[in-house]
Amino acid sequence: METYYHPGDLGKFAEMGKGNKELWEKFTSYYNAVFAEGALTEREKALIALAVSHAVQCPYCIDSYTQACLEKGSNVEEMTEAVHVACAIRGGASLVHGVQMRNVAQKLSM
Amino acid sequence: MSETKLSLKARGSVLTSENEQLRILSEIKGCPPFEAPMGRIGLDPLYATGISIFQMNLGKLCNQACRHCHVDAAPDRREMMTRETAEACIDALAQTDIPTVDITGGAPELNPHFRWVVAAARALGRHVIDRCNLSVLLLPSQADLAAFLADHQVEIIASLPYYRPAQTDAQRGEGIFEKSIAALRLLNQIGYGVEGSGLILNLVHNPVGAFLPPKQEAIEAQFRKELKLRYGVVFNRLYTITNMPISRFLEFLIETGNVGGYMERLANAFNPAAAAGVMCRYTLSVGWDGTLYDCDFNQMLDLPVDGGAPRHLSDFDPAALHHRRIVTGNHCYGCTAGAGSSCGGALT
C-alpha cells in the first residue's frame, strides 16, 4: 500500500546530512547535547520526547522514543501517562483558544 | 503467545536443536556475521586472557520456567550434575588459583550436591556466587537455604527483572514477583544486602522484551528507590544483562516477529569497548556433564571450547585453557551491544 510514511525511512534519517553536511552536523551535535544527562535524567528526557512525539504526531519519533523509553527503564504505565500529558496540553490548547472564539462571538453578537 | 510452563524440550520445539538456533541467527538480514565487526577492531579471532571465574552449571532443573530463559530450564528438566562431576570440578579448581566460583543452573540449589559444592569451594578459600531465582528460597525443602548461604558467606546474585509486579510476572511467571519480594525480605532479615553485614546481595535486571537494558547506574538508582519505598527491600548492586537471542528468548522473538529487529538492534549497537571485555575472555564454564565451554551461552548452544583446548573436565589442563581461542557466533552480539553485558552486568 502506498503511504507517505515508511518505517524503514527512520533508519535513513542520516541521509539528510547529504544535502547540507554542516547544518546536519550542527543539528546532530545540538540534538545529542539536548538528550544527554543534565538537570533532567536521560530517562525523563525520553519520556518528554515521547509525549512531544505524540503532540507533533511524528510516527518515526513515536517508534524511536517508545524504544528509547523502554531502554531507559521506563514502563508502559509511565509512558501512557506521558502521552496523556501531551493529550491534555493539546486539548487544553484548543480549549483556551475557545476564549478567542467567545471574544469574537461577543463582539459580533447583539 | 506460547505457554512456557514447559521447557522447549518437553514441548518438542524445533528450537531444542542447537543447530537450528544457530542457523536462524546466521540467516538474519541486516545482521552481519559477528566475526565481521570483531575483525574490524582486531579481535577476530578472540582469545581468552586467563581464567578468573570458574562457572559451574549444576543442571537444568528449575522451579520456575521464565520466558527468556537461555538454559531452557524448567520443572520438567532432569539434567543434573552428578556428585562425581562435582568432585571433578573441585579437584580441577584445586589445581588453580581461580578466585571465584559462580554456581548457576536452572535453580542450582535444587541439585542435591549444591551444598557440598559450596562448602568444598569455600574450603579452598574461593569466593562463591549463587545465581538464585529467589522463589527457590521459599520452597519447604529449602527452608534452611538462606541460613546456609549466609553461614558460608556466599554472594547471592538474584534475578529481578523489574521493580513492579506486572513486568516481572510477565517474564518469570504469575506470582513470582510477590515470592521474590518475600525472599528478598527474608534475605534482608538475615543481613543480606545490609550495609556492613558482609553478606552480598546483588540483583539482576534484564529487559522485559526485545530491547536493550538501560544504563546500569540509572536503573540501579531507580530499583533502589522503588524497592525501598514500596517494599522496604535493600540490596548492594544491580547488574544489567541483555537478553541473549537463544533458546526460549529466541522463541519469544520469533513468535512476536521481533527476531530480525532485535538482532539488527544488537548489531547496530556493537560496542568495541564492550567487545574487548566480554566475559568469555576470563571465564571457564562447566556444563552439568563436565563439558567445558567459554560461557554459559555457548554451553546452551552446544559449542564447547575449541582451538585444541581440552573439552572435558577429565582432561582439565589450566595452561591450555588459559589462552584458548574463544568460539563465537551471532549470539555474541548480545554481550557486545550498548554498554555490554556479562554475568557481572554492564562491561563499560
Automatic annotation (TrEMBL), chain A:
Signal peptide segment: none
Protein known as: 4-carboxymuconolactone decarboxylase
Superkingdom of the source species: Bacteria
UniProt cross-references to InterPro entries, sorted A to Z: AhpD-like, AhpD_core, AlkhydPrxdase/COmuclacdeCOase, CMD-like
Entry GO MF terms: peroxiredoxin activity
Residue ranges constituting the Carboxymuconolactone decarboxylase-like domain according to the UniProt record: 25-99
Automatic annotation (TrEMBL), chain B:
Entry cofactors: [4Fe-4S] cluster
InterPro entries: Aldolase_TIM, ArsS-like_C, rSAM, rSAM_ArsS-like, rSAM_sf
Domain Arsenosugar biosynthesis radical SAM protein ArsS-like C-terminal: 212-346
Keyword Phosphoprotein: no
Residues covered by the Radical SAM core domain: 57-196
NCBIfam families per record: rSAM_SeCys (TIGR04167)
Name this polypeptide is given: Radical SAM/Cys-rich domain protein
